[in-house]
Design a protein that fits this description.
Structural class: mainly beta
Number of domains: 1
Number of strands: 28
Helix content: under 10%
CATH superfamily: TolB, C-terminal domain
Strand order of the largest sheet: 22-23-24-25-3-28-27-26
Radius of gyration: 21 Å
Oligomer: single chain
Strand content: 35-45%
Distance between the termini: 15 Å
Shape: globular
CATH topology: Neuraminidase
């Protein structure tokens, strides 16, 4: 990969421009798969969280059954850590889990209004009460190097909701919020407004298909990486001060939205409006091209892993960047497709992720990153 850095002297921002050229190619070699289509602890229905514990143990959260299961580093089932319920050590609508700096497992347990915490061996340890501030598909949080938990929350301010970062000390005693740095979002307010139906007391809201919404990734060193997602441009922003320290750009040809894709996305929205007795909205604000990126992630050594949008439905391709210099390190093609809503865990030269097998059953895979 050829790149041209433009660093601005004493100013903190450094822009990295890249263009296609020779680059390193890494591969992923699967060496463990946990999952089965037979009943038992190896059968998963909807995985919403994976965490890696001591000596490579693997915690898996199944959202539909509300169970956390512990497996050893060889993929052998050890025990059920948690089940559905409201008692100590039980979970309700949990949608993610994280490993703290002390090795304990924190679970986002919103319907019990708490974080439920387990020891590295999977025994109930503690709980910290909190007020849930919104619930996403998966829990978007991390532990920084000081041991504090950071998570995205949505806070009501007047008639609007604002994104914030909630910071919780390791002992749960101190909770505060800090401003969430925002990337530039060049989409118009009208395009982001979406479509809403009203039938009696029932409201349904639909986002604009193919809209370029901002995406983010945590960095344990005290930064957030984000992109407005209308082009391949990613900013590294200091969380506390909000200043941009790195900006990564790469040439990427826009991928058009086909007529078939557009009609498939519109069909359920049009049907919802018909059921409500309302006229269908004007769909002229649907973009003609897809968002530039599917997701961005940061591994435990500070590398940025970028999933650009492609039309390939069988594999996932990553572009890996050095998180300090902004230099592209490699392209990595996975032998399987990672669903966009699920985030891989990259630890050194090992990746853990969730995929769907040939029968659409979720499984956990571990793969070595070969250079």
């Amino acid at each position: 990969m050829r790149y041209r850095p433009l660093c601005l002297g004493f100013i903190t921002a450094c822009v990295i421009n890249s263009s296609l050229g020779a680059q390193a190619t890494w591969s992923l070699v699967e060496n463990l798969r946990i999952g089965s289509e037979e009943d038992g602890p190896y059968l998963f229905t909807q995985i919403r969280g994976v965490a890696i514990g001591e000596r490579g143990s693997i915690f898996v959260l199944d959202f539909r059954t509300q169970e956390i299961r512990l497996f050893d580093s060889q993929g052998k089932f050890v025990k059920r850590v948690a089940r559905a319920g409201a008692g100590p050590g039980e979970i309700k609508n949990a949608n993610g889990l994280l490993i703290g700096t002390d090795g304990r497992v924190w679970v986002n347990d919103p319907n019990n209004s708490r974080y439920t915490i387990f020891t590295p061996s999977g025994d109930f340890a503690a709980q910290h009460l909190f007020s849930p501030w919104g619930l996403g598909y998966t829990w978007q949080g991390m532990f920084d190097r000081s041991g504090s938990l950071l998570e995205y929350v949505s806070v009501s301010e007047g008639n609007q909701r604002q994104g914030k970062v909630r910071r919780v000390s390791a002992d749960g005693a101190k909770v505060d919020t800090i401003a969430l740095p925002e990337c530039e979002n060049r989409a118009s307010r009208e395009a982001q407004a979406g479509y809403q139906t009203q039938s009696g007391q029932v409201r349904n809201f639909f986002g604009v298909p193919f809209i370029a919404n901002p995406i983010r990734a945590w960095d344990a060193a005290g930064f957030i990486w984000c992109s407005s997602n209308d082009r391949y441009e990613i900013l590294k922003i200091r969380l506390i001060r909000g200043d941009t320290v790195l900006r990564v750009n790469s040439a990427l040809a826009p991928i058009p939205v086909t007529d078939a894709e557009r009609e498939a996305a519109i069909a359920p929205i049009r049907a919802a409006f018909a059921r409500s007795g309302q006229p269908a909205p004007d769909f002229g604000n649907i973009p003609r091209v897809k968002p530039a990126l599917q997701a961005i992630d940061v591994d435990n050594v500070g590398r940025l892993w970028v999933r650009a949008t492609t039309n390939d439905t069988t594999r996932t391709v990553f572009e890996v960047w050095d998180g300090t210099s902004g230099r592209q390190l490699a392209t990595v093609t996975a032998p399987w497709r990672i669903p966009g809503a699920l985030r891989p865990l990259i630890r050194g030269d090992t990746m853990y992720t969730v995929i769907l097998d040939e029968n659409e059953v979720p499984v956990v895979v571990r793969a070595l990153i070969k250079r």
